[in-house]
User: What shape does this take?
Amino acid sequence: MNTNFSNGEAIGARLRAERKRLGLTQAELADRAGVTSVTQRNYESGKRAPDALYLASMAQLGADVQFIVTGLAGREPTVDEAELLSRYRAASPEVQSVIRAALGAAARVEAGASGATISGGSQGQVVFGGAHQPGMTINVGGSKKGSEK
Assistant: This one.
């Protein structure tokens, strides 16, 4: 086994971050995960790679093992997230496209993007981005001209 692997230090840093998130000292985590304190230090310093049994113990303690190994958060989705994902997967490709576009527009607005893009399609006009105009009101689905009271 190559003990000088390039991701060793990164994995060790993420392991240390998870240990701290769990509120444990190195000695406490070592004891709960079934390794010695020296082994725990070696894992966190990147000198040794944790094995599957250790990572399984970490998962039982509430650590995000996917994050430790890959750097990507692997937490379980919330009930709302799971419902959204289920509905997204069941939707037609056209609906999925609209959902992705809406989330992209929302991300741009949150990032402070200004202006709006209006495009047409089978779904009608779709506005992407923020459209901010003081004193302006847009009514959707209101009464037709001539039917106002």
Q: What stands out?
A: The first helix runs from residue 8 to 21.
